[in-house]
Amino acid sequence: MDDHGIVREGLIAMLKRQSGMQVLGSAISGAEAIVAAQRLRPTIIIMDLVLPDMSGIDATARILKLLPLTRVIMLSARRTIEHVYRALRAGALGYVVKDAPAEELVDAVLAVREGKRYLSPQVSSSSNDGATCYSLPKSPLERLSMRERDVLHRIVAGGSSAAIGQRLSLSPKTIDTYRGRLMAKLGVCNRSELIRFVIENEFTA
User: Fold this and answer.
1) What is the C-alpha separation between 183 and 188, in angstroms, rounded?
2) Is domain 146-200 in CATH 3.40.50.12780, yes or no?
3) To 10 degrees, the CA torsion angle through 178, 181, 185, 189?
4) Are 50 and 27 spatial neighbours (Cβ–Cβ below 8 Å)?
5) CA dist list (Å): 71 to 27, 108, 195
6) Architecture of the domain whose range is 5-124
7) What are 153-169's pLDDT values in tens digits?
8) At 1, is the pLDDT very low, low, confident or very high (cuts 50, 70, 90)?
9) Which residues are bridge partners to 97 per DSSP?
10) What residue segments make up the domains of the chain, in order of their start?
11) How many other C-beta atoms are found inside a 10 Å radius of the C-beta of residue 41?
12) What is the pLDDT of residues 55-86, one digit of tens each?
């Protein structure tokens, strides 16, 4: 399910060329995907992470509540650990990045059809491949301590190390240490990426 016509049509054409695969339908929104899934009852759904009316993660969770035997592969341009965790915890069995070769999506379909998890190589090394879909450890944001979450919230709000330190009765050097620890835990390289990560994942302290 993808809201971009060219991408959607390209995926359909590619999958139709594969032996043993049949495309039952497509949708351009989460709501349409849910209705189509109930009507068509597909074995596998390829779900875009970003849809016009809701996230692909929300659509996946709703579909799997209705059709628990259906398997979902998330297709996304985003590759942060947090997005992967959210997709898997919603019930997706696969996660493929959009710039992957077309053959990779076919590999994902074949793996998921057999009940196996498939993660693009670009994200699998960071996502604890050993965990099952139903017993994932906490995501990076969920693993932050209350103090780390507080500092992160204040960094995103634009506070300097000095201002945050004064507010929390900590030294600016300690705040810098927290910032470095947060970047390491969330897999980003600088303050701008840290802020973007938080915005993209709708983090609230």
Assistant:
1) 5
2) no
3) 110
4) no
5) 16, 11, 33
6) 3-Layer(aba) Sandwich (3.40)
7) 899 888 999 999 999 99
8) low
9) 76
10) 5-124, 146-200
11) 12
12) 899 999 999 999 999 999 999 888 777 788 88
